[in-house]
Write a structure and sequence with these properties.
Layout (H helix, E strand, L loop, with lengths): L17 E5 L10 H9 L2 E4 L16 E4 L2 E2 L2 E2 L3 H13 L4 E5 L9 H10 L4 E4 L4 H8 L13 E5 L6 H11 L4 E5 L5 H10 L7 E6 L7 E6 L3 H7 L6 E5 L22 E7 H13 L3 E11 L1 H8 L10 E4 L2 H13 L11 E4 L2 H9 L13 H11 L6 E6 L5 H9 L3 E13 L3 H7 L2 E4 L2 H9 L13 E4 L2 H11 L5 E2 L5 H12 L4
Parallel strand pairs: 1-6, 1-7, 2-3, 2-6, 8-9, 13-14, 13-19, 15-16, 15-17, 17-18, 19-20, 20-21
Antiparallel strand pairs: 4-5, 9-12, 10-11, 10-12, 14-18
Bound molecules: S-adenosyl-L-homocysteine.
């Protein structure tokens, strides 16, 4: 076989890649799947003010987050500097996501960034985004094209519309039949509308101004070309905003249902729990129209339980029941089992009890059908169910989180049933860096465990006496509600009747419904 030795090209010097990702018009869900994948994998993210901060929740916790925002009027980082920053990060060997509002190649100076990267020999990629130029009018009910009414649309920058040259430019636009969409035009709104009229557009041409398109605070102003600017001023409109001019702007194709996005429409819900919990909760709450903010994530410290479990696996034969109470518990129990050279056959003689649908699923995935699952997903209910089937000659192995509920152990002691309660892992609360800001947005905070309540207290989440409108506190079940009472002296406002995700969602809907 013949080998050729190729010289190491510049990019093989372990430089990272820069990926320009379009973040979409604002609402976090309007990011593409590819964009999300790049965000989840990157080592550093450089974002600007139009990119939804929500998206930063996707990045790894060791990812560097750098703000390079550019708000109109306050250019916080000159373009040159951003280019240098991207090049510098890539040369450090980091894979960088440059997160830009809308689509990176629509007025975002994305192409300039690519030219700079090319020149520096950095490898790059672009991930298109949903541009606000089309999506923002659409979400305000305006189609940029419509058969027989608008056969084209023109996306125009309003940024430099000050001098004579641009006035002539506007004259040309005034003569066009299609829909005119102005980005970055808010500060020149009156000169744009006046120049279009001067250029020959009818003062009665339908027009619209859309502020914060796709976001919960979206506002839409509809007027004719002649009155749009004055009305915008009167009603205190501000940036970011898009101006739409043309017959299509008269459309208002918005869903007619009163509450198109569900009973929690417009509500922000704060989450405190494991990644599995917050991910599932986010999906479930979104379906009901709510937005979520993860304020504190409970992380699993695996090392904690390693020694304790090492002595348990060789003695599995002595137990008759195995009790697992969480997805992490299942995962780590089986990881340890395999690492100690065993497999599920070593559990063949045991009966298995589990709490919660997710724990059951995790067991089924590993080839085990639990023998006992309490109706209510809590330790007390499990203890009661176990009593009905256990004998004094049984021996129970509970592999759980350090500091898990003592109820189960207490009840087994009382019944004289021997057991080992092995701490498999510990949980640690990692508060979000934006906790303060997130807290001020939340109408409800959901706690999934007593450890979450304690971690949140430690992170200072509860010390906000200045809040006149404090959020409602929701607990996944009575044990968590009890912890709330003990730790901070607060009675939970909402307690789920069924201790799982759908139960919590229902409790939040019921607990926040306006009084009839
Ligand atoms: N690359 C972006 C546009 C960047 S220029 C894109 O494809 O969408 C920035 C301008 O976009 C703002 O001045 C404003 O006119 C418009 N814009 C972006 N997001 C917006 C939003 N959510 N609501 C209203 N206008 C928005």
């Amino acid at each position: 076989m013949k080998y050729t030795i190729t010289p190491v090209s510049r990019n093989e010097k372990k430089w990272g890649t820069v990926c320009l990702v379009g973040a979409g018009p604002g609402a976090g869900e309007l990011l593409t799947i590819r964009g999300m994948e790049r965000l989840k994998a990157c080592d550093a993210v450089v974002y600007d003010h139009l990119a939804s901060q929500e998206l930063l929740g996707f990045v790894r916790k060791d990812c560097r987050i750098i703000y390079a925002g550019k708000e109109a009027g306050s250019h916080s980082m000159p373009q040159e500097e951003i280019n240098h920053l991207l090049i510098g990060l890539a040369k450090e060997g980091l894979n960088v996501v440059r997160l830009k509002g809308g689509d990176p190649f629509v007025f975002g100076r994305g192409s300039e960034e690519i030219l700079a990267l090319k020149e520096a020999g950095i490898s790059w990629e672009t991930v298109p985004g949903i541009t606000s130029a089309v999506a923002v009018p659409e979400l305000a009910g305006i189609p940029v094209t419509h058969r027989g009414i608008s056969r084209s649309f023109h996306v125009i920058t309003g940024h430099t519309l000050t001098g004579g040259r641009e006035q002539n430019e506007l004259k040309a636009y005034a003569a066009m039949e299609g829909t005119l969409v102005f980005l970055m035009g808010f500060h020149s709104l009156s000169s744009i509308t006046e120049d279009l009229i001067r250029g020959g557009k009818s003062p009665q041409t339908p027009a619209a101004l859309i502020e914060n398109g796709s976001l919960l605070n979206q506002r839409v102003l509809r007027a004719d070309l002649e009155t749009l600017a004055a009305k915008a001023k009167e009603q205190g409109f501000h940036t970011p905003a898009i101006i739409v001019v043309g017959e299509a702007a008269a459309f208002n194709l918005q869903p007619e249902t009163v509450n198109p996005r569900g009973p929690l429409d417009g509500m922000t819900v704060g989450l405190i729990g494991t990644e599995h919990f917050t991910d599932q909760m986010e999906i479930a709450l979104r379906k009901e129209g709510a937005k979520t903010e993860t304020l504190l994530r409970m992380e699993c410290l695996e090392e904690k339980g390693k020694n304790a479990m090492a002595s348990v696996y060789p003695r599995l034969g002595t137990y008759t029941w195995l009790v697992l109470t969480s997805v992490n518990g299942v995962r780590l129990f089986f990881k340890g089992l395999f690492e100690s050279g065993l497999d599920i056959r070593a559990l063949g003689h045991m009966k298995v009890a589990a709490i919660g649908a997710a724990t059951c699923r995790a067991l089924l995935e590993r080839g085990i059908r639990p023998d006992l699952v309490p109706e209510e997903y809590c330790s007390a209910s499990l203890a009661q169910a176990l009593f009905k089937v256990l004998h004094s000659k049984d021996r129970v192995l509970m592999a759980r989180a350090e500091g898990a509920s003592v109820k189960l152990a207490q009840m087994l002691i009382k019944a004289g049933i021997p057991f080992d309660d092995i701490p498999l892992y510990a949980v640690k609360g990692v508060p979000s860096k934006r906790m303060e800001e997130q807290l001020s947005l939340c109408r409800v905070l959901i706690f999934a465990s007593p450890s979450g309540v304690r971690a949140f207290k430690q992170a200072g989440g509860f010390c906000r006496p200045e809040d006149s409108e404090r959020p409602l506190y929701a607990a996944i079940g009575p044990v968590t509600a009890e912890a709330m009472k003990e730790e901070i002296g607060k009675t939970a406002d909402i307690i789920a009747e069924s201790y799982h995700i759908p139960g919590l969602v229902k409790a939040v809907i019921d607990g926040t419904a306006p009084l009839p």
